[in-house]
User: Fold Carbamate kinase from Latilactobacillus fuchuensis DSM 14340 = JCM 11249.
Amino acid sequence: MAKVVVALGGNAILSNDASADAQKKAVKETVKALIKFVKNGDQLIITHGNGPQVGNLLLQQQATDSQQNPAMPLDTCGAMTQGSIGYWFQNAFQEQLAINGINKSVVSIVTQTIVAADDSAFKNPSKPIGPFYGTAELAQIKQEHPNWEMMEDAGRGYRRVVPSPKPVEIKEYPAIKQIIAAGIIPIVSGGGGIPVIQKGQQLIGTEAVIDKDFSAAKIAELVDADQLIILTSVGGVFYNFGKPNQEEIFNVTATEIQKHIAADEFAKGSMMPKVKAAVQFVEKTGNPAVIGALEDVSDIIKGTKGTVIHQ
Assistant:
């Protein structure tokens, strides 16, 4: 039985419809693909993003902010979306396990990610959250939210950006290892986990977002995973993506792809963190990482699709 950490992007949860019903429907379709890992005999560990959800929740919080009903801070909104998305996945998995006659339990865990107080990311907000905005909407957004930092995101529009410190430790990882040892499917580190700073015996929540791919790599390292699989909306990693000479990469060493990272060849808001996280996992563990499309799960399990990064 292989231990496989699967990191899911926003396309696995949110489409154009941000309603709970639409997102639950999207999660059900995602789980129909992920159950294939369980049927393959793998021990599955799920992580997921929450950028659009936490951004939308912040908008709702700000729209109703008052002295009697104050808006919740970003770390608490992160915990709230961990809970809601974890519930959707937990519920969908329980249904698919029953349909497939698999006697297995699944549980979602509100996860805290310890970050360094002096991480340089706090001085350079870079993590996109919330919806995309067009150029025409920027002026109004800046007027309504003057303290927001905005950034163009991989040609898809503008989004709010917040600090994205690197994960130092996953507070709940010993418990996650016990859950894995019991054969239970854990849904962990949603949205990268709630960013907390350790001060003595206290863990203090902070206004930031952990990149879910780096958090997935850290989880995979800590639980001794045999493989890290990062599922996204594209079939794998491309050199010169979107250009006439684009080239899809199927098998590459961590050393080779590091050269392309150093040359800044990947989109910062999308593929770059995925490639960096995959390389981090490979270098820390010696085990392979795969970047591929959610729709290609069957072929990724067979080893015929996706970009495999190895030593």
User: Anything to note?
Assistant: The chain has one domain: 3-310. The first helix runs from residue 20 to 39.
